[in-house]
C-alpha cells in the first residue's frame, strides 16, 4: 500500500518511483498504482474510491471532468491510470478521454451504467483501454493495473526492438512477411525476396555496403527537391535511382532516396485511402498542407479507431500495430524501407485482393500499399471503395484490422500498418479488422473529424494509448512547409514500420519544422506516441514515451530552446508537441484544428504550469547531452516554430512543429521533469544512451 | 442471547432482501468493503445514495412536469439515477429505471410518467426496508460490543 494514506492524495514520489520501472516491478505491485477516478455520481465515486483503496491503489477522486483534467495537468507524472464515467455534466467522458490521450497519454478506463453496444464501441474508438459496466465490481478494478503494464511493455518492446535487435526484427519481419505471404502462393518467393530486401535495407548498403552511412536529414528543402523529382518522374515511375539523379544532391545515396520514397508512398497512400477525398492524395501531398494533415491523421486515427470499432482488434493487436508502425519507422535505421521490399512482395498479392474497384486504386497507389492488399483478408471490395484509395485503405485497414489473428502477418502490420500494427497480428487480421471498419463508412469521417484520442484502442484491448501514438508517428516529413512536415509525418505514422529513420537523429533530431528540416526519424518520432513508443529508435522511444507514458510527456516537454525568448513558450511548445503527438497518435488528425486547439490548449495550460526556468534547464540538459549537433540545430528551429505555435489558430503546421519540436526535446527534461531527477528509471537512461549511441 | 437473536434477525432480513430481489450483488460488495477503517461504510453509502436520489428524483419530477418534455434530459437524469442505484445493488429500483429509460427513448410521456411512479415506489420501499435493516445491523453491532 502506498505510503500516502491520505484520501485523494496525489501520488507520492515513493509510489511513483515504485512504478517507474517496467522491468523491475516492485514487490508490492500493483499496490500503489495511482488511480484518478472521475465520476459525477457521488455514490459511485465513493464506492469506487473505497474499492480501489481496498486494492491497495492510491486513489484520487474527482467529481468533475474539468477538475480531473486540471489535476492531471498539474501533476503530469502523478497518475498511472484514469477511470472515468461516460456521462458527466460538465464534459463528456469521451472528450475527457481524448484530452487525456492527447495530453498525458495515460491509459483510461471508461465506465458507465450504459452497456449499449454503441457506447462501448465509442469507448473503443476513442481509445479507452477498457470499458466497465456499472455497477463496477471489485474484481474488475483489481486488474486495472494490467493496462498500465501493458502500455509500458509495449513501449518497451518497441524500444528494445528498435534499439539493438535489428537483426531480430529483421528476422521477425521476414518471418512475418513469410507468414503473410504464405497466404498467397508466392509465400516463399516473397519471403526470400523480402529477406533479401530487408538485408539490403537493413544494412543500408548498396554499393558501399561496408560503410555505415550517416543518417540523412530530410530537410524541407531536400524534401521539396525530392517531391519535385518524384512529380517530374511521375509517382508510378519514380524510382530511387532516377529520383536521385534528378535531385542531384551530393552525398545523397540511392538508399536514402529509396527509404524516403517508401515513406512518401505510404504517406500518399494513406492520404488517398483515408479520407473521403481520397483523390486529393497526390495533390495534397504535393502541397503538404493542412489538408494532408487532416486526412492523414484521420487515417491514422481511423485505423485505430476502426480497428477498435471493429471490436475485433484486440488490444494486443492494436498495440502491436502501433508499435509496429512506430517502431518500424523509427527504429531501425538499418531497415530503412522495409516497405519498399514489401511493396514488391505485396504487389504480388494485389491480384489476390478481392477488392473490387479498390484494386484499381491499389495498383495505382504505391505498391507499398499493396502490402496490405496482398493480405488475404476478408476485406470486401466495398470496404475498399469506401476508403477511396485502396492502397490507403489497405494500409488503414490493416491498421484497423489488426486482429488478433495469430497468423501473423505481423510483418505486414509492421510495415503497412501505418498504425504500427504490432507484428503479432496478421495482416489478414488487419484486413478483417478493416472490414468492419470500412463497412461503416461513416466511421471514417467520424474519426477524421474527431480528435479522437485513441487511448489505446478499443475497450478491453490492451493496446494502450501507445497505439494511438504509433499512428501518429509520422515517419515522413517531406513537406517543406512546417505544416507539411508535420502532416506528413503524421500520416506516415503508418509508414514508420518500414522506415527506420536512419536519421539517427534521435528524436530530437527531427529537424525543426520551421526550418523545414525534414527528418525521417523525426517523423517517426513525431509519432510521438506519447505513451506508446513503438520503438524503433531508442531515441524515439525515449522521446516518445517510454514505457511510462507519463514520463514521456516530460521528455517531450523538456526540450526547450534556450534561445527562445519566451521560455514559457518553449515549454509550451514542447508540451504542444507532446500533446500534438498524442493527439496525432490517436489519429485525430482529422480534427486538426480541433486537435491543434486541444493541443494548444492543453499545452498552454501545460506550459503555464511549467516554470520559466525550465526551458533553460532543458537547454542545459540538452547541451549536456552528447547529442548530435543536429539537436542543437533543431533547438533553434524549435524556437522559431514556437512562435508559430503560439498563434491562436493552430494550423497543422503548428501541430507539426510542435511535434517536431517535441521530438527534438528528447533528452532534456523540463524543469519539472528534470531529467536528472526524472523518475524514469534506468530504462530511460538506457534509452538516452541508446539514442546517443545511434547518433554516433 | 440478545445479541445472537439480533444477529439472527439481521441475517434473516438480509437474506430476504436478497431473495425478494430488493438487493443484489453490489450490495454484498459494499458490505465487503466495510472494514475497521470504515465500520459504517454501508450506512454511509446508503445515506449518500438517499440524498443523491432525492435530488435526481426531484429533477426528474420537474422535467416530467415541464412542457414540452425534454426526453434527453430525462434520460440523462434517469441514467444517473440508475447508475447510483445499481451501484448499491438496488435491484428493483434499477429495473424500474430501465423500464423508464425505454419509455424515454421512445419519447412516450405517458409511459415515462407511469414508470416513474414505479421507480419512486420501489425506491420508497427499498429505502424503508434498508433503514430497518441497517438499524438492526447497528443494534446487533452495538450489542456485540456491549
TrEMBL record, chain A:
The keyword DNA-binding applies. Residues 160-210 are annotated as: Disordered. It comes from the Eukaryota. Residues 167-176 have a biased composition (Basic and acidic residues). InterPro entries: ARR-like, CheY-like_superfamily, Homeodomain-like_sf, Myb_dom, Myb_dom_plants, Response_reg_B-typ_pln, SANT/Myb, Sig_transdc_resp-reg_receiver. Residues 212-269 form the HTH myb-type domain. Keywords: Activator, Cytokinin signaling pathway, DNA-binding, Nucleus, Phosphoprotein, Transcription, Transcription regulation, Two-component regulatory system. Gene3D superfamilies: 3.40.50.2300, Homeodomain-like. Residues 34-149 form the Response regulatory domain. It is found in: Nucleus. The keyword Membrane does not apply. Residues 180-189 have a biased composition (Polar residues). Transcriptional activator that binds specific DNA sequence. This is Two-component response regulator. The lineage of its organism: Eukaryota, Viridiplantae, Streptophyta, Embryophyta, Tracheophyta.
Automatic annotation (TrEMBL), chain B:
The keyword Lyase does not apply. The modification Phosphohistidine is found at residue 79. It comes from the Eukaryota. Residues 38-140 form the HPt domain. Keywords: Cytokinin signaling pathway, Phosphoprotein, Two-component regulatory system. It is found in: Cytoplasm, Cytosol; Nucleus. InterPro entries: AHP1-5/YPD1, HPT_dom_sf, Sig_transdc_His_kin_Hpt_dom. The keyword Lipid biosynthesis does not apply. Histidine-containing phosphotransfer domain (HPt) contains an active histidine that mediates the phosphotransfer. Functions as a two-component phosphorelay mediators between cytokinin sensor histidine kinases and response regulators (B-type ARRs). Plays an important role in propagating cytokinin signal transduction. This is Histidine-containing phosphotransfer protein. It comes from Hibiscus sabdariffa.
